[in-house]
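Try this one yourself first.
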């Protein structure tokens, strides 16, 4: 039913897009392989332009004019926001009964998601919320939360993802709903999108554009900060949640844009920091203290990437920018409290921007690169490399190694709780280290032996593969695998093979961009045999996947997993009661 619905919607949307020009020069991506396609109205022309960089704190760039202009439509906007809180839903929570999920199962998954909050502080569940209240008031958010928290149960999670897509299609495409419940649910789904990630698919970016359009339609981008400034106390739950969602949408848009090279359609705005500052001054949760520094360092990362992109690989000021950015980064990092410096989200952000600063746009070349300036030397190499550029690349090797060492210190069992931003940063580190170890044609003077002496890339890949094996989906699962964890081991294995080949033939392989080409050429294939995709990731993007088993088999697998959750909850409660009883008993004996 879901496949038929998505197919019909795709055809309708395709017809609409032919007669509707994209707004603001942004072309809505439509791909029948991606499931839910975007509709033209979801590309709003009210996306605000890039503003100057913030002037506050150590990461500040050019100064900003102080204050926000008062809104002429304050009352109208506030009424719109308040109405969107109570907007009726087009679908109820029938999936709960359809999948046989008891209150015990739902509460167990909600508790697990609450433990994941420090990885994505932009959507928080109040302590007063339970499964019953969320099913009535926030059904879409409940569904998204349960999807993210059910990663240990592949059949249940797959069924929940199907329900998520169907609910999103019904409520957004058919009913045209726009409310905070949908926005928060989309953000949670995007934050842990690697559970249903397909390389080459545009679905992540499509979902992100829907979320951005909701921010615009709910006017969070224009009025959230003004609404906050009108209140000395943040007693309005909607305003708190709306501000977190606004900042969370910017966070996801920036992360996805910088990782994929696609346009960021929700760029930094001064109001974002004002929202984050108000949440920090009047926190409801401990994670509210994280939002301001996370937003600030993310904006700084965008400034770094944009500066290097504008300068180009032929720029003569690359090392000057790197020195300036490094000073600002370290001063900002030292200004944070120890508690904030120990949060994984900020640790990842700090090391990611540090790597970006030191590689100077020369190493991480994923996505589109702007053409070199007209006066620059033709080609893609630097004619004469400054020793300071080489010095920064040496520091980049050390920083990348340091980040991976920190990542490997995280227990493998915790990897399924990490958000997609953390995995993007792991891929960034591997990408950078691989290129510095194999060869950097953009910088002919770079000596890859420096990387070999500092880091054993093969050993690091083995460690990462070992960690991934512990969370790889079970081979006896009854459905095709679609998560990042199912395909990443094979992808990294391919990287490892190409690195080994390059290491054996360093005289021939001087370009890391061609290492996989050389790997493919080294394996003779009969002329009658179809050559497989060079990178395993491309095989996963093929829409012709293994046939899923019949419905009774799937339902039995889901029922088994649901029973397993109930058993885990029961044994967990018994263990807690036994521990608590022992503690109170020993305390009474001492008195």
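Now uncover the answer:
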């Amino acid at each position: 039913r879901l496949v038929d619905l998505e197919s019909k919607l795709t055809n309708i949307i395709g017809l609409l897009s032919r007669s509707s020009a994209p707004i603001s020069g942004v072309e809505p991506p439509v791909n029948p392989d991606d499931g839910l396609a975007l509709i033209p109205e979801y590309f709003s022309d009210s996306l605000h332009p890039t503003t100057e960089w913030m002037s506050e704190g150590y990461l500040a760039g050019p100064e900003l004019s102080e204050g926000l202009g008062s809104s002429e439509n304050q009352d109208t906007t506030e009424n719109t926001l308040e109405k969107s809180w109570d907007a009726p839903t087009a679908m109820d929570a029938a999936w709960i009964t359809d999948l046989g999920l008891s209150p015990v199962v739902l509460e167990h998954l909600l508790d697990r998601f609450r433990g994941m909050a420090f990885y994505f502080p932009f959507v928080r569940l109040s302590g007063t919320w339970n499964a019953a209240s969320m099913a009535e008031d926030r059904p879409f958010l409940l569904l998204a939360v349960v999807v993210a928290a059910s990663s240990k149960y592949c059949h249940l999670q797959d069924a929940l993802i199907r329900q998520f897509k169907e609910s999103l299609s019904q409520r957004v495409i058919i009913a045209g709903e726009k409310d905070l419940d949908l926005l928060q649910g989309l953000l949670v789904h995007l934050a842990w999108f690697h559970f249903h990630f397909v390389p080459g698919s545009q679905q992540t970016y499509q979902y992100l554009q829907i979320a951005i359009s909701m921010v615009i339609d709910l006017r969070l981008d224009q009025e959230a900060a003004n609404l906050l400034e009108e209140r000395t106390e943040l007693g309005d739950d909607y305003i708190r949640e709306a501000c977190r969602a606004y900042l969370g949408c910017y966070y996801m848009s920036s992360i996805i844009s910088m990782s994929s090279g696609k346009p960021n359609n929700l760029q930094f705005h001064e109001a974002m920091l004002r929202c984050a500052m108000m949440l920090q001054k009047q926190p409801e949760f401990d994670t509210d203290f994280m939002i301001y520094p996370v937003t600030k360092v993310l904006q700084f990362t965008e400034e770094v990437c944009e500066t290097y992109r504008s300068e180009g690989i032929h720029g003569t000021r690359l090392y000057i920018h790197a020195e300036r950015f490094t000073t600002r980064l370290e001063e900002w990092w030292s200004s944070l409290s120890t508690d904030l410096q120990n949060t994984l989200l900020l640790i990842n952000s700090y090391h990611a921007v540090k790597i970006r600063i030191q590689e100077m746009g020369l190493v991480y070349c994923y996505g589109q690169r702007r053409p070199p300036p007209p006066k620059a030397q033709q080609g893609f190499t630097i004619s004469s490399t400054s020793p300071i550029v080489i010095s920064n690349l040496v520091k980049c090797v050390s920083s990348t190694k340091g980040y991976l060492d920190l990542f490997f210190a995280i227990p493998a069992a915790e990897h399924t709780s990490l958000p997609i931003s953390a995995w993007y940063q792991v891929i960034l580190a591997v990408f950078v280290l691989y290129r510095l170890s194999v060869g950097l044609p953009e910088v002919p003077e770079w000596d890859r032996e420096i990387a070999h002496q500092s880091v054993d890339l093969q050993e690091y890949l083995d460690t990462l593969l070992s960690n991934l094996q512990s969370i790889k989906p079970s081979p006896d699962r009854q459905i095709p695998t679609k998560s990042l964890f199912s395909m990443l081991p094979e992808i990294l294995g391919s990287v490892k093979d190409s690195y080994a080949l390059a290491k054996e033939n360093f005289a021939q392989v001087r370009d890391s961009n061609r290492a996989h080409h050389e790997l493919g050429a080294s394996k003779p294939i009969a002329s009658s045999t179809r050559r497989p995709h060079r990178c395993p990731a491309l095989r996963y993007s093929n829409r012709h996947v293994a046939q899923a088993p019949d419905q009774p088999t799937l339902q039995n697998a889901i029922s088994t997993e649901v029973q397993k959750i109930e058993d885990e909850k029961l044994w967990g409660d018994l263990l807690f009661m036994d521990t608590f009883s022992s503690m109170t008993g020993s305390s009474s004996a001492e008195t």
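Discussion: Residues 333-372+379-522+551-572 form one domain. The first helix runs from residue 2 to 19.
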